[in-house]
Design goal:
Chain B: InterPro entries: Ub_conjugating_enzyme, UBC, UBQ-conjugating_enzyme/RWD. Chain B: This is UBC core domain-containing protein. Chain B: Residues 6-129 form the UBC core domain. The complex is a heterodimer of chains A (507) and B (129). With 507 residues, chain A is mainly α. Chain A has three domains: 5-125 and 137-154 and 161-173; 220-421, no CATH class; 428-506, Herpes Virus-1. Chain A contains 19 helices and three strands. Chain A has helices at residues 5-25, 60-75, 84-100, 110-122, 136-148, 155-165, 175-192, 196-211, 220-254, 257-260, 263-300, 302-305, 308-326, 345-359, 363-371, 379-390, 394-421, 452-461, 481-506; strands at 440-442, 449-451, 478-479. In chain A, a hairpin with a 6-residue loop joins strand 1 (440-442) and strand 2. In chain A, helix 1 packs parallel to helix 3 (84-100), helix 4 crosses helix 6 and helix 9 packs parallel to helix 13. Chain A is globular and about 90 Å long. A four-stranded antiparallel beta sheet of chain B has the order 1-2-3-4. Chain B is globular. The model of chain B has no long low-confidence stretch (mean pLDDT 86). The chains are: A mainly alpha (507), B alpha+beta (129). The A-B interface holds A 370-374, 376-377, 411, 414-415, 418, 431-435, 448, 454, 457-458, 461-462, 464, 466-467, 469 and B 1-6, 8-10, 13, 65, 68-69, 101, 103-105.
């Protein structure tokens, strides 16, 4: 290859980055003598202006060429002696990524936006798991970019935008494909997590979400967390199903019946095994990354997960997987060569227990754990404890015990409450769920009173009043303070009665 | 004992009220439904004075754990499927409140009433679906 070819290409792509960004941030102007950007205007992020029409005239490959060059440079790092030269391309490329990756109005094509996330991954410095690493100087330069780039604060919001954005792309993104697209995003998030200022960016998005949980357009962080949970549930469920299947196939090989099978049947079984093994590996790796991200976020922004709209889902998800991994069926997943399938149930159990410990400080979470009739039983945490002892999770045991105690206290109290409150007057009951309303709100058009959690849940999927189908959003509902006072008074009265009878019976 | 999930609680309540005060011609198999709250069998008699007078139909209700936020899956089952423009021969029912127009304010009872009234409408009033 021509000696100067790579450096020339890098310079060309570096200039392309600057040029593309300059075009993208321009506003539409009338009667320009020429559409080319004739002067450099400073880049301000986040970009709030609508994309100019000229951007439509630029073919996608111009953007994709940059991605290809950077990802290839990463893959062939061993062959590149002048890697430091790539660094000059990285700063403009990061501006390019931040301009286009999260913004569907500038980059319609979701696949291309996902490619930009891949490009971002290729721009990271060395990490421990790398098989081929940069030399130290190059790695240092790369790290500096993420510490000093003027627009680095946009990294986290852009990542979340693209993460959420590829979920809804019509039919073009295959279901499995989205997991592949998300893998590099996890790597980047993992890296960013090491920096205080980027962690802060996650926190401030989480705070913003907390303040706007009930907004008409759900905040980005809420949607992100929602999808993370969907992915985690799907991947772990698939992974466990595959592990159980692998176990069956492996057992079949060792059974006496195996020798009686025809050669063809044996081959068929072996093919099945290797196919399932591949799927299991994929699910296990991605599941692990997803869970790891959830562990970080629950530790960092527990308030989002404990919000009424999410708390039930996270609690039932944790219960479900903990029960499978430590419960009576746990041996169903014991297979040979767990390493080969990247199956590491011990670390998943540790991760799940860490989330319990973090979220368990919150009363609403504990209540949601105990309310989950599907997987929760008081035995669940005892089972988890005996597993933790064996997998060196000893330091978690005492904190998990605290959570277990809190959950069971709440469970008992709920049970008692349920008995006390079972015969509540009809007007105190939610007309949809038939539960006692703790926060009654009035729907403006049908004038019906329902519990806030009920209507919030309904509006997540359907923006209308369930009683007359007229349009409705959460900001239109009004607290029914009069009824709330009545209900509160009634609850206090019932509790008082019970306290009275129980003291008189013990005395 | 594990607490009932919210959707089970609501189904339990609906079951009680449907057994106590069923709409005319409608009976629910209470034993079966209380065994498994997510699968109900409802017997329905053809309304006197209509084409279906004297006939007996069986409806099956399937509920997900998202009920009542998600609609139940309702089909005619058994040997006698009503011959009706909005009912497929495999028992599937074409009724908007079972799909797009479902609302959590509806109930098993209101679905039954809608099906009864659907079976009352005479030819000519139909919009084919």
């Amino acid at each position: 290859m021509e000696t100067n070819m790579l450096p020339f290409m890098r310079r060309l792509q570096g200039a392309t980055c600057t040029w593309l960004v300059q075009i993208a941030i321009r506003e539409n102007a009338e009667n320009l003598p020429c559409y080319a950007p004739m002067n450099i205007i400073p880049v301000k992020m986040p970009i709030t202006t609508p994309p100019p029409d000229t951007l439509r005239c630029i073919p996608e490959f111009v953007l994709e060429n940059v991605v290809v060059l950077i990802t290839i440079a990463r893959r062939t790092v061993k062959l590149n002696m002048d890697d430091a030269d790539v660094v000059n391309l990285l700063a403009p490329a990061l501006t390019l990524v931040l301009t286009f990756m999260g913004d569907s109005s500038r980059t319609y094509n979701p696949h291309l936006r996902a490619r930009l996330a891949e490009c971002l991954e290729a721009m990271l410095p060395n990490n421990e798991d790398d098989s081929s690493s940069h030399n130290n100087i190059s790695s240092f330069y790369r790290e500096q970019i993420f510490k000093t780039h003027p627009h680095r604060f946009q990294l986290v919001p852009c990542l979340l935008d693209v993460f959420v954005g590829i979920e809804m792309t019509g039919q073009s993104v295959q279901f499995e494909q989205k997991f592949n697209y998300r893998r590099p995003m996890y790597v980047v998030m993992d890296f960013l997590w090491g920096f205080e200022e980027h962690r802060e960016a996650f926190t401030s998005l989480a705070r913003e979400a907390e303040a706007n949980m009930e907004a008409v357009h759900p905040p980005i962080f809420l949607r992100f967390v929602n999808l993370l949970m969907n992915d985690a549930i799907f991947l772990l469920d698939e992974a466990l199903g595959n592990m159980a299947q692998i176990r069956n196939l492996q057992n079949a090989q060792e059974s006496a019946a195996w020798t009686n099978l025809s050669a063809q049947e044996r081959e068929q079984n072996l093919t099945n095994l290797s196919h399932t093994g591949m799927l299991a590996r994929f699910d296990n790796i991605l599941g692990r990354d997803t869970i790891r991200t959830l562990v970080r976020l629950t530790a960092h922004a527990p308030f989002v997960f404990c919000h009424p709209t999410l708390v039930e889902r996270i609690a039932s998800m944790l219960n479900y997987f903990l029960l499978h991994l430590v419960g009576p069926n746990k041996k169903n997943f014991k297979v040979k060569d767990m390493k080969e399938y990247e199956f590491d149930p011990a670390s998943t159990v540790l991760d799940i227990c860490r989330m319990y410990v973090e979220l368990g400080k919150n009363e609403r979470f504990c209540a949601a754990v105990s309310d989950d009739g599907r997987s929760y039983s008081p035995k669940l945490f005892t089972l988890a404890e005996s597993v933790l002892v064996r997998i060196r999770g000893g330091d978690l045991i005492s904190s998990l015990r605290d959570v277990a105690a809190r959950v069971s206290t709440i469970a008992e109290q709920r049970q008692r409450d349920e008995e006390i409150l079972a015969n509540a007057p009809e007007e105190f009951l939610d007309p949809i769920m038939s539960t006692l309303m703790l926060d009654p709100v009035i729907l403006p058009s049908s004038r019906t009173t329902v519990d806030r959690t009920t209507i919030a849940r309904h509006l997540l999927s359907d923006q209308s009043d369930p009683f007359n189908r007229s349009p409705l959003s959460m900001d239109q509902v009004k607290s029914n303070t009069e009824l709330k006072e009545k209900i509160d008074a009634w609850i206090a009265e019932q509790r008082g009665k019970i306290a009275h009878t129980s003291t008189s019976s013990t005395s | 004992m594990a607490a009932m999930s919210p959707s089970e609680r609501r189904l339990q309540k609906e079951l009680m009220s449907l057994m106590k005060e069923p709409p005319p011609g409608v009976t629910v198999d209470g034993d079966q439904a209380s065994q498994n709250l997510t699968l109900w069998t409802v017997h329905m008699e053809g309304v006197p004075g209509t084409l279906y007078e004297g006939e007996k139909f069986v409806l099956q209700f399937k509920f997900t754990n998202k009920y009542p936020f998600d609609s139940p899956e309702v089909t005619f089952i058994g040997n006698n499927i009503p011959v009706h423009p909005h009912v497929y021969s495999n028992g599937h029912i074409c009724l908007s409140i079972l799909t797009d127009d479902w609302s959590p304010a509806l109930s098993v009872q209101s679905v039954c009433l809608s099906i009864v009234s659907m079976l009352k409408t005479t030819a000519g009033q139909f919009v084919l679906c």
